[in-house]
Amino acid sequence: MDLSPLKAALADVVAIPVTPFAEDGSIDVPAHRALLRRLLDGGVRIVTPNGNTGEFYALTPDERRTVTELTVEEAGGRATVLVGVGHDVPTAVAAAEHARDTGAEMVMVHQPVHPYVSQDGWIDYHRAIAGAVPELGVVPYIRNPLLAGEALAELADSCPNVIGVKYAVPDAARFGAFARDAGLERFVWVAGLAELYAPSYFATGATGFTSGLVNVAPGVSLGMLEALRAGDYTAAMKVWEQIRRFEELRADRQSANNVTVVKEALASLGLCRRDVRAPSRVLPEAQRAEVADQVAGWSI
């Protein structure tokens, strides 16, 4: 199986779409489709339904399947679909199989939230999922700074469809070491902490980055990618300065408002409701104006 097209697709702005909710709390399917079309029309070429910005852990299994299906439908060959899967092994395997059967090309395996994660257990967990869908590219989402690069290499030795990594440890030096211990050229390295960390991670080996901000302003995120691909860090940092405050608001208090700020920005543009599900909360009224002011200064 030639995995090179999937690897090429990962080396990009990996958009994490929000999941908009209707007034009754259900998924707002028309709004979701419209937001996906907006991303595609804006130039996005890879999307991750059921990512953290999509409130993965707040969705029911049926809702996660719905999000996968409508994303594949809207992508329609215009973009690669990288479906977020996770929870216990049977649930993750079932979601991966559903993604495959729906027509997605890859799955991203969410960081295990189990309080007792050993390195060998981490390998076993991902091996069970990757082994169930050998037709799909598999991308582990790594947030554990204690995980060794050699563990990823061991996983890929038995599961060659593990082709990339979403690395989200906030330490560029650690990322550089991990990538080289695992095999810098062996995997596609995606900076998993979005635009604020993308320049430093690209400097040490990343070739793509995830984004929630791209829901609001696709051109801004794609502009940073263009600069980073060209090695123009001055231009990339101009984008960084432009979006810095927005991303800081998302990261405040251990990312308590990560999704909330994105949905507030979309609400300010009239694109969806601001509603989020617990344990997230909508922004206080006093902060809403700041988000709207941030977005108003961008080229949307």
Properties at a glance:
eight-stranded parallel beta sheet; 300 residues; 8 strands; globular; alpha/beta; single chain
In words, what does this structure look like?
This protein is α/β, with parallel strands linked by helices. Helix content is 49%, strand content 11%. It has an 8-stranded parallel β-sheet with strand order 1-8-7-6-5-4-3-2. The radius of gyration is 18 Å and the shape is globular.
Topology pattern, helix = H, strand = E: HEHEHEHEHEHEHEHEHHHH
Strand order of the largest sheet: 1-8-7-6-5-4-3-2
Radius of gyration: 18 Å
Low-confidence stretches: none
Instruction: Describe the sheet with the most strands.
Output: 8 strands, parallel
Taken as a percent bin, the fraction of beta residues is 5-15%
